């Protein structure tokens, strides 16, 4: 259980370090991990977490060296340690013992067992090292049945209270982890991972029940072989309740042998799917009751249920009156003479059959078709006699007087008999003497379960003893009793013994966790044994310990709180501490007193200065940085590299540009909405400037979108009536034709490419200048070609010549002239005012 490792006291100077300080001197302490590095003195690290900033500088240099080496003491495996920081020096889950105080001298370590330890181990130790969340149970001097629970490491067992065992008398009863919730039952032990490890035969989350097929308080008994159901479990007797069925060995109608093979009952054979004894054998048929029966003499195959012969053997023919029979064909000698019954054709004559045959096909007894009276035919045409029970000689078959054959015993029977058998006996008098697997003989029949008051004894239901109501295994092992008595462990008693309770006429054992109980569960305890003395009022369980800050008071049978100065204790008051709650105190004779040092090592309960003896006269080797605090590696913030500053500046600039651009776009949209809301602008419509073709045009369009307030827009106005001319109906004069105006053309490429389509009928003007309704020549519009296609004409437009001379009449009438310019009769919208004209120019 304990793995010893001898570590002798050192006669050379040693450096022992805890988190935050190191001391140099002579020491016998071995707990922890030794760290070393080339060119530097080694140091023993006591349990704790060490980082690169841990003082002093000497320890910092060791921890951060390029190739540190770690050597562990018992309980501190190298495989669990890593040179990467932080370095956690932690004991494995378990118990370390040391021969000398302050964790010195010979050392040994024991892990948490995988199963409950039902025994005790003497411990000759002066110091105990316990990992976190692990407790041990040791003997108590108060009583042989009492136990003391220790939760913390003990630097010197001589400083324990008087209620704890004295040095040299320590005995270990149990060691377990406290990580399991709920706690494990007595059938298991809590592992460091927080799960219960069950003993062999136990099962369940808390190892509280027996595994299937095991029985008894320790789940050590196993049900007998050949039993499909037995009285298993913690309170079971292990007696077989239901015999194994034939299906358990893949044998439906047969007997399972000890080697796992199957012996089929008469009339059964292996099926095509491989299942043994699942198919009716040739020459037999299945009756309505499920039993097999042999076909009639001369019939090689017959139908199930009726037995009607479907195929007759050679030399036989189907009977005309009884379809279940096949009659032998009469033999004729070579002279053509038919031989009489009891003879057979022998060349030119007929010869008599053997004396054992009534009819035959040859001279020997093996040639019988029907045997003589008192003998019966087997499948091989031989004749055998039957005994007084009707059993055919050398077989387990029964003699059938109706068929003159040896027949099967029927359903589920492997052997049978007919008492006082004679030639008048019939098969309805048959009695089974043995059954297929899973059945027992009861009153001449095969039953799957013995009747009440009987038990199965080697396949035969046998009556129980008169004192038993029911029994199992033997006639005297009572499961229930007569005369109002109680069955307790197979016997009949008037009252149940301790550790049992009465239930349905029997004394049922309590769970092994309980001393007394009200039920079989481990949550139905009424009182607890000494090994698990704590009765939990919440769930009715018996637990091995109280919590860490409590102790078990045997007088009241309850858990009581420890003194506030104790982290764990063995009794009431400040003098019964097993460990101290404050890191500024140490244990002295069971009492926590103020430590006379600057630092108490956490988890070890002793001052760092106690681990090292510093000589007053002898000089020690000088070690650099032993008392120097660890130098700070950079007290201010880290300076940024130039490229980091550049990236930050570019990022900020980009974010600023995006914010400004988004703000301008938002402002422009609001400005446009306000402009459209002006009633004087409703006749006008803004259109984007057509984009030029080619990559230059697209690049210019992109630049306008990004770097200008908006894309260049032009104002178009829907002209419902180009001129507001007042034509007096009384004045027949024609309106003079306007003077010719030079055609306004767009620049090349301006109207091509991705230019937007004009409005329907292309009646919008691309530009507009100041004009009045009194001046006809101030207005101009695209040509008809431009109005239809939306692009400027490719050549000058033809002009209509006018007549020379003043006052000459035009070629066209006034009506035609006016129709040239008037597209509709709607009123002309007002032209923009001076203010609106300025807005247009800004667009």
What's the structural blueprint in terms of helices and strands?
Layout: E1 3-5, E2 14-18, E3 21-25, E4 33-37, E5 40-45, E6 48-50, H1 57-63, E7 69-72, E8 87-89, E9 94-100, E10 104-111, E11 121-123, E12 127-130, E13 134-140, E14 143-150, E15 170-177, E16 188-190, E17 196-198, E18 202-203, E19 209-210, E20 214-215, E21 221-222, E22 227-230, E23 240-243, E24 254-256, E25 262-264, E26 268-269, E27 279-280, E28 284-286, E29 292-294, E30 299-302, E31 309-312, E32 316-318, E33 326-328, E34 343-346, E35 349-352, E36 357-360, E37 368-371, E38 375-377, E39 383-385, E40 398-400, E41 405-407, E42 413-417, E43 431-435, E44 440-442, E45 445-447, E46 454-457, E47 460-463, E48 468-471, E49 478-481, E50 486-488, E51 491-493, E52 500-503, E53 506-509, E54 516-517, E55 525-527, E56 534-535, E57 542-543, E58 550-553, E59 558-561, E60 566-569, E61 577-580, E62 585-588, E63 591-594, E64 600-601, E65 606-607, H2 642-677, E66 684-688, H3 694-707, E67 713-717, H4 784-789, H5 814-821, H6 834-842
Parallel strand pairs: 2-5
Antiparallel strand pairs: 1-10, 2-3, 4-5, 4-7, 6-8, 9-10, 9-12, 11-15, 13-14, 13-15, 16-17, 18-19, 20-21, 22-23, 24-25, 26-27, 28-29, 30-31, 32-33, 34-35, 36-37, 38-39, 40-41, 42-43, 44-45, 46-47, 48-49, 50-51, 52-53, 54-55, 56-57, 58-59, 60-61, 62-63, 64-65, 66-67
């Amino acid at each position: 259980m304990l793995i010893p490792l001898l570590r002798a006291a050192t006669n050379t100077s040693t450096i022992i370090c805890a988190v935050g300080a190191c001391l140099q001197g002579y020491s016998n302490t071995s707990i922890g991990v030794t760290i070393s590095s080339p060119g530097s003195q080694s140091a023993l690290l006591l349990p704790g977490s060490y980082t690169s900033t841990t003082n002093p500088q000497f320890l910092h240099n060791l921890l951060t060296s390029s190739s540190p080496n770690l050597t562990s003491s018992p309980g501190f495996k190298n495989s669990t340690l890593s040179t990467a920081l932080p370095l956690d020096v932690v004991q494995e889950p378990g118990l370390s013992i040391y021969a000398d105080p302050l964790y010195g001298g010979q050392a040994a370590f024991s892990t948490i067992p995988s199963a409950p330890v039902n025994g005790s181990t003497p411990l000759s130790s002066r110091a105990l090292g316990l990992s976190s969340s692990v407790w041990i149970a040791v003997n108590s001097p108060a009583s042989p049945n009492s136990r003391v629970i220790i939760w913390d490491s003990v630097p010197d067992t001589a400083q324990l209270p008087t209620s704890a065992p004295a040095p040299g008398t320590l005995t270990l009863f149990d060691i377990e982890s406290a990580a399991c919730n709920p706690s494990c039952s007595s059938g298991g032990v809590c592992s460091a991972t927080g799960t219960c490890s069950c003993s062999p035969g136990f099962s369940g989350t808390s190892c509280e029940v027996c595994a299937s097929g095991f029985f008894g308080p320790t789940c050590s008994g196993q049900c007998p072989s050949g039993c499909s159901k037995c009285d298993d479990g913690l309170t079971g007797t292990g007696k077989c309740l239901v015999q194994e069925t034939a299906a358990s060995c893949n044998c439906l109608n047969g007997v399972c042998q000890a080697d796992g093979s199957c012996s089929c009952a008469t009339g059964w054979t292996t099926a095509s799917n491989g299942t043994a004894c699942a198919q009716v054998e040739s020459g037999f048929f299945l009756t309505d009751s499920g039993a097999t029966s042999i076909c009639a003499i001369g019939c090689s195959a017959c139908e199930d249920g009726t037995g009607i012969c479907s195929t007759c053997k050679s030399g036989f023919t189907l009977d005309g009156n009884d379809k279940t029979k096949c009659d032998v064909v009469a033999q004729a000698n070579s002279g053509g003479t038919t031989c009489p019954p009891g003879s057979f054709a022998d060349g030119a004559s007929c010869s008599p059959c053997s004396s054992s045959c009534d009819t035959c096909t040859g001279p020997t007894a093996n040639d019988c078709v029907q045997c003589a009276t008192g003998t019966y035919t087997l499948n091989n045409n031989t004749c055998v006699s039957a005994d007084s029970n009707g059993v055919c000689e050398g077989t387990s078959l029964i003699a059938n007087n109706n068929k003159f054959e040896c027949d099967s015993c029927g359903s589920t029977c492997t052997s049978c008999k007919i008492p006082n058998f004679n030639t008048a006996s019939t098969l309805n008098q048959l009695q089974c003497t043995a059954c297929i697997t899973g059945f027992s003989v009861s009153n001449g029949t095969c039953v799957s379960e013995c009747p009440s008051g009987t038990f199965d004894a080697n396949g035969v239901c046998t009556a129980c003893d008169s004192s038993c109501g029911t029994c199992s295994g033997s006639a005297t092992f009572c499961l229930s009793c007569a005369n109002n008595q109680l069955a307790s462990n197979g016997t009949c008693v008037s009252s149940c013994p301790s550790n049992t309770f009465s239930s349905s006429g029997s004394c049922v054992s309590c769970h092994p966790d309980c001393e007394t109980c009200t039920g079989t569960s481990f949550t139905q305890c009424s009182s607890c044994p000494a090994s698990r003395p704590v009765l939990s009022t919440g769930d009715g369980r018996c637990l091995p310990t109280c919590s860490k800050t409590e102790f078990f008071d045997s007088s009241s049978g309850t858990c009581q709180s420890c003194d506030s100065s104790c982290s764990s204790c063995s009794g009431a008051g400040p003098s019964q501490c097993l460990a101290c709650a404050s890191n500024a105190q140490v244990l002295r004779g069971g009492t926590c007193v103020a430590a006379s040092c600057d630092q108490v090592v956490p988890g070890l309960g002793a001052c760092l200065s106690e681990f090292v003896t510093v000589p007053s006269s002898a000089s020690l080797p000088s070690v650099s940085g032993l008392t120097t605090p660890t130098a700070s590696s950079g007290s201010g913030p880290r300076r940024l590299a130039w490229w980091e500053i550049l990236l930050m500046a570019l990022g900020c600039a980009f974010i600023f540009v995006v914010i400004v651009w988004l703000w301008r776009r938002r402002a422009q949209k609001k400005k446009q909405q306000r402009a459209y809301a002006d009633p004087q602008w409703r006749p006008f419509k803004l259109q984007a400037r057509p984009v030029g073709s080619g990559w230059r045009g697209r690049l210019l369009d992109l630049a306008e979108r990004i770097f200008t307030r908006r894309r260049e827009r032009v104002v178009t106005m829907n002209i419902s009536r180009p001129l507001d001319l007042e034509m007096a109906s009384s004045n027949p004069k024609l309106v003079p034709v306007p003077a010719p105006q030079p055609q306004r053309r767009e620049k090349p490429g301006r109207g091509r490419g991705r230019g937007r389509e004009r409005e329907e009928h292309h009646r919008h003007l691309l530009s507009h200048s100041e004009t009045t309704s009194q001046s006809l020549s101030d207005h101009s519009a695209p040509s008809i070609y431009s109005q239809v296609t939306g692009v400027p004409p490719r050549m000058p437009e033809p002009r209509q010549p006018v007549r020379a001379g003043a006052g000459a009449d035009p070629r066209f009438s006034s009506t035609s002239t006016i129709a040239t310019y008037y597209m509709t009769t709607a009123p002309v919208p007002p032209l923009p005012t001076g203010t609106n004209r300025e807005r247009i120019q800004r667009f």
